[in-house]
Amino acid sequence: MKIHTPLLLSLLLFSLDIAQAQSPKLSVLGTFRHGAYNVSAAEIVAHDPATQRLFVVNGGDRTVDILDMRQPTNLRRISQLAIPAEHGIAANSVAVRGGIVAVAVEAQVKTDPGSCVFFDAEGRFLKAVKVGALPDMLTFTPDGSKVLVANEGEPSLDYKVDPEGSVSIIDISGGVAGLTQANVRTAGFGTFTRATIDPAVRIFGPNATVAQDLEPEYITVSPDSKMAYVTLQENNAIGILDVEAGRFTRVAALGLKEHWRAGNEIDSSDRDTAASLRTWTVWGMYQPDSIASFVGPDNRYYLLTANEGDAREYEGFVEAARVSSLRLDPTIYPNAAELQAANNLGRLNVSSVSGDIDGDGDIDLLHAFGARSITVWSPNIDRIWDSHNQLEAFTLADRPEAFNVSNSDNTVDSRSDDKGPEPEALTIGNVRGKNYAFVGNERSSNIMIYDLTVPYAPQYVGMAWNRNVMAATNTPAAGDLGPEGMAFIREQDSPTGKPLLVVANEVSGTTTVWQID
Predict the structure, then answer these.
(1) Under DSSP, is residue 488 helix (H, G, I), strand (E, B) or coil?
(2) Backbone angles phi and psi of 13, in degrees to 5
(3) Strands of 367-369's sheet in order across
(4) Which among 43, 211, 242, 399 is least buried, having the fewest CB atoms inside 10 angstroms?
(5) What is the pTM for the complete model shown?
(6) In 225-308, where do the E strands start and end?
């Protein structure tokens, strides 16, 4: 396999030696196999320190598995949560705080209002309330007084029913026992219109209003529990939510990443017979999935996103198209025929609904899905730092045989035409007084670690693998495939007395506990 490595990569690798010598190292303590391959049997994971139990969303069984992790080397399933049928059909997310387990549950018809269902740590049902359509992620506020639920509001397959996206704010300050529907407020986007929203925010669903088109994906909350920041993945934006007022104050566009600049190189083709990082006249849409936040040594608050990327693909509307199938502006792309060859840009999946800047019917700017990076933002959504091409470049340097492989096959370069490594799982943990970001790349299935001590210049310090690319992906020998959710466990909450990282892997259907040394 021929490898093209830019000078930037060599310089970056040279700078890592000292940082890696004193950085955290991950070692596997134990893995639980949920029993099914490629059915999302392990998606999101949450930890209860009082009982040393893990709660893992099992998409295959549409519920939540309860694992005993008192001995992380010997994880075992205790039971599964019994979600009453009247409250929905499938668990999508789980969060735990103070012995209370909150579960986001999808309705029988996904465009109908879903539920937030509460259990105790023993798995006993407590209460349930209605929330918005397709609740896809939820979290407790830091002060424990509220649960915030991201209601994605995806359309029906034929795109004829498109519910509004929203965030439900559930007040549990008086406890869960007395919880009623009156404790639930819903923050939507009804005050935003196409005339008032930033035009850089992508509003493009067929016949959709702004409120219908915005789809909340993931939430992080400020330390004082007053503000929440919500990724709107398909829209390439972040919504800022005033939790106390119960309303969105702003929808901020995230802009575009210039893959034609040095340092932002990507591999754009799965047919170029090489792992090749090059600059191209392509703009990447950040489109983050996971979002986390931290307070830096300067006592300022920062956001961190995993820029996975996502395209809308339904029976009634398909957004993605190969560059080879599009008509490119001849002024900006005078060598279109050459660019559209399969070994150049022809295979790259881009948006077919954005990029025609002058409205003349051809594509002026090629908009690729995701930025293949992680990014630090200010609370005002100013971009502070981006990892540029490091997720691809460092994987290429560390494991060239796993470069841009998929999580369902071991073919090198097979995901280069479609979002590359796809950073998705994300968590931040403090180890010996330093904040570290742990990033799970969904496709390559590795975990990358960044030191966040200097928020304006995070330092890559290493990666970990529990994947064997020599083994067939549908076998246990392949290891962990498709990290979807992560939980950091502080040493004071850990059964081993050391900090731990727990990763739920949706393709392999495994939950793995890593020790951080």
Answers:
(1) strand
(2) -65, -40
(3) 256-258, 283-285, 367-369, 349-351, 320-322
(4) 242
(5) 0.95
(6) 227-232, 237-242, 247-253, 256-258, 274-276, 283-285, 291-295, 301-306
List 509's β-bridge partners, or say none. none
Q: And the tokens for 245?
A: 């007022």
Tokens of 189: 């986007």
* d(C-alpha 204, C-alpha 226), whole Å: 31
**In angstroms, what CA-CA distances link 273 with 51, 88, 116, 269?**
51, 47, 48, 9
If one counts every other C-beta atom within 10 angstroms of the C-beta of residue 181, the result is: 9
Question: Which residue, chain included where needed, has tokens 């986390």?
Answer: 292
Nearest in space to 2 (alpha carbons), one of 401, 273, 392: 273
Angle at 233 between CA 332 and CA 327, to 5 degrees: 25
Query: Quick check: 288 and 254 in contact, CB under 8 A?
Result: yes
Q: Residue 187 in contact with residue 244, Cβ under 8 Å?
A: no
Count of CB atoms situated within 10 Å of the CB of 15: 12
CA distances to 150, 220, 245, 259, 448 from 241, rounded to whole Å, are: 11, 10, 8, 31, 30
Q: What is the mean pLDDT of each run of 10 residues along the chain (517 residues)?
A: 48 53 88 96 98 98 98 98 97 98 98 98 98 98 98 98 98 97 98 96 97 98 98 98 98 98 98 92 98 97 98 97 97 96 98 94 97 98 98 97 96 96 98 97 98 98 97 97 98 98 98 97
CB 231 within 8 A of CB 289: yes
Q: What is the pLDDT of residue 356?
A: 95
Q: Which two tokens stand for residue 30?
A: 């134990």
pLDDT at 14: 54
> Tokens 């990029």 sit at which residue?
355
Q: Which of 332, 327, 330 is nearest to 350 (CA)?
A: 327
Structure confidence at residue 2 (pLDDT): 43
Report the pLDDT value the prediction gives residue 99, as an integer from 0 to 100.
97
The angle at the Cα of 236, spanning 92 to 294, to the nearest 5 degrees, equals 70
Whether 386 and 373 have beta carbons less than 8 Å apart is answered as: yes
Please state, in angstroms and rounded to a whole number, the distance separating the CA atoms of residues 234 and 499.
34
* Distances, alpha carbon 209 to alpha carbons 114, 165, 167, 190, 202, in Å: 21, 11, 17, 9, 12
**What tokens appear for 153 in the block?**
């509001």
- CB contact at 8 A, 517 and 27: yes
CB under 8 A, 24+ apart: contacts of 351-357: 351/285, 351/311, 351/319, 351/320, 351/321, 352/319, 352/320, 352/321, 352/326, 353/204, 353/319, 354/202, 354/204, 355/283
